Amino acid sequence: MITAGGKLVRKIVVILSVLFFILLVACNDENSVPEENTSDDVEQENKDSEEDTKNEEDEDEKDLDEEVPESEENSEVVEPKYKIDENASVVPVEDGVNENVVLLTIDDAPDKYSLEMAKKLKELEAGAIFFVNGHFIDTEEEQETLKQIHEMGFVIGNHTYNHPLLSDLEGKDDQQREEIVGLNNVIEEIIGERPAFFRAPNGVNTDYSRQLALEEEMVLMNWTYGYDYFKPYMDAEKLTTAMVTGEGPEVDVPYSLLKPGANLLMHDREWTNDALEEIVTGLREQGYEIVDPHLIQTISEKESVE
Ligand SMILES: [Zn+2]
């Protein structure tokens, strides 16, 4: 038999639990708003859970988290929706995913313009991968720049330490290892994670660099088109036209390379920085979505699926 007093106590307990739950949900909502920050949130959460000692409050929080609807839980884990195919194109991994996407990549970062480019892209809500060279992150100030770009939600890729032509290092395994694995160590120290994508200088890999990339769980990534490193296109207006149409008639590309999944190569250069906003809006006007690189399958994600 339950007494009136017992009922009241149970009522209070229920009300308090509901209030606590609402508070938790509200806090979670605040953390999960900007899409681009999702991975940062996950990272932050991972850090938090590593650092936290397992006290009772944490246990309570976990119990309550389990009652949160599935969709909200999943918003913290980014499910891969695309992969890089053998032509460096971005292709959906499942039906129902928009295939009309292009990927923006910025190589030789973070030199003079990367931070400004990152700010512009952030403003435009356009994701990108910044492929980084070690010699651009060897001062404290440069390391701070890299950290900032990463914290803005951009993906950081490996572009070797000194930007050598890897074919020149054929047979010099130690040097290739230093260029690739050494850079990952430096990047991890600065941003707290190892790159999941590798782009060789000039797109030239060796058998050993391919092996190292795999060992480091990095997806090899060349590109499908880019014009900012050809003399005729070292000009913001001409570059914009070339990037938005996919055509570079002055370097013998009189047909369009813009197609679903195009992987666009750009660099940390003045004219590219000047053209960036119009390139993004121009591509969107053609019906292309700028893909969020966090949605591209990495090797560790691939392994966990298979
Ligand atoms: Zn480069």
From TrEMBL:
It comes from Ornithinibacillus caprae. Residues 32-83 are annotated as: Disordered. GO terms for cellular component: membrane. InterPro entries: Glyco_hydro/deAcase_b/a-brl, NODB_dom, Polysacc_deacetylase_ArnD. Keywords: Hydrolase, Metal-binding. This is Polysaccharide deacetylase family protein. GO terms for biological process: carbohydrate metabolic process. Residues 37-76 have a biased composition (Acidic residues). Residues 100-291 form the NodB homology domain. Pfam families: Polysacc_deac_1. GO terms for molecular function: hydrolase activity, acting on carbon-nitrogen (but not peptide) bonds; metal ion binding.
